[in-house]
Amino acid sequence: MHLAQSQEGYIPTGAINAIAELVDCHPAIVMDCVSFYTMFFTKPQGRHKIQVCQTLSCSVNGADALVDHVTNKFSIKPGETTEDKKFSLFKVECLGSCGTAPVVQINNDYHEGLSKERFDELLENLE
Amino acid sequence: MSKFEPILTEYIKDEDCHTLSFYKNTGGYTALKKVLDKNPDNVIEEVKSSNLRGRGGAGFSAGVKWSFIPKDTTKPKYLINNADESEPGTFKDRLLINKAPHQMLEGMIIASYAINCNTAFIYIRGEFYKEYQLLKETLAEAYQAKLLGEGILGSNYNLDIVLHRGAGAYICGEETGLIESLEGKRGWPRLKPPFPAIEGYLRCPTIVNNVETLSCIPHIINRGAEWFKSIGPEKGPGPRLFCVSGRVNNPGVFEEAMGIPLEDLIFKRAGGIPDGKKLKAVFPGGSSSAILTADEAMDVIMDFEDLVAKKSMLGSAGVIVMDETVDMVQACLNIARFYAHESCGQCTPCREGTVWLVKILTRMVNGEGKDSDIDMLLEITDNIGGLIDFSKESFGKTICPFGEAVAWPVRSFIEKFESEFRSYIQEEKVLA
User: In this complex, is the C-beta atom of A83 within 8 Å of any C-beta atom belonging to chain B?
Assistant: First the structure.
């Protein structure tokens, strides 16, 4: 499933059917699994997934301001994608890096102890 | 007591500390060599007598767990390394994976040898992509050096390790949820008994141990159970990675002997609270533990028994510090929302109850709270986590301990800071 998602950034129905065939089960069983895990998507997402941790240690260290910052900058709320399909914004639960709060995961990479300025820099450098 | 020197994190400042050559040069894999000449039962006995208790959260004796593996079965046995670190406030396993992956791997190989298993797994949380890539390299190095595969270090012991990535589900840190997930399904915990040591992965005997627990093993073999037991309280000894985060000047992972006063952790190691603010409340062992007030926190040592006596728990040793700037109702909502999001949905009290907690707390925060809301919140926590009575150990209304993990902290917020909850309701009345 990770492999399927790495191709297009989400797991389309075709991939679900292919996985079902591969492991010899009904596609509904694959769908059951895909829908359970927060890292899997069944609909197209932006090219870059911006995932801001919102759990307590990040929250008391300015995570909410980072979410607002992206919302203001790109006019997208958490769960939405920019019109040019470049960014999707997510509020996510604990990323396991509370000692370097606030933390944002962009695609596969963690960015720790993030200031607004550094966050802007990162976003501007993304293709 | 002599000054404690880090054991698990001794070399993490060195640039090459994650490599096999560095690990070998600093005494790595000597414990494995020793073990391969021993009877596996002796290894279990050694770990049992060290009183090493699980570092994942439950704090169960590692050696006792291993000894539950049936000796007379013809089924294959499995070891799973639980690297699905997701408890809010906990970030120590990630450090151990990044900085000392071979220490963890050596612990895994020794544990596998002790329980006579030939296939082991590392279940790493999906978000840890960099760590996943690093572990791939670590495993490749180990296979090349004949530390894994057939005939390990010239013995007749064989072991393969499979690396598996999770996909974002807190519940997969629970051992039976993890096993279901590893089998390729949604991570729904199983009813216990049977415990995984009897029926685990593919219904075969399985041991699930945490990264930090396994990382302690080589040191116990090398220096002996007595040495291990001499570090900190005898019933729960050893080095421990304490994670301190939240409102502190110097957050991070601090390796200390078990039993360090919480006050020292917060004010000495983590540098106290920024801007001279006052301490208000602390999660001592991850967000699933009941919170302590500032007074309680100043009077507790980080030990399994002492925290249970204070009606909380050591859990994953993830200390989250809240100062006077943190609103207790908002913090409670934050934690309740985490559990509502992460509830796996299998048991009704937890699936429905967590959502109701969030709804009620949200309306309180929005100034729409009702007088009856506080009692209702307490009733819901009872419905999810049971009436908590530590003396009778009577808790549990759900298949896995997630229910208690929501109920305890939420209840502790309300009971210890009831006036803040009341003021939200009363403020609204004044405005009206």
Answer: no
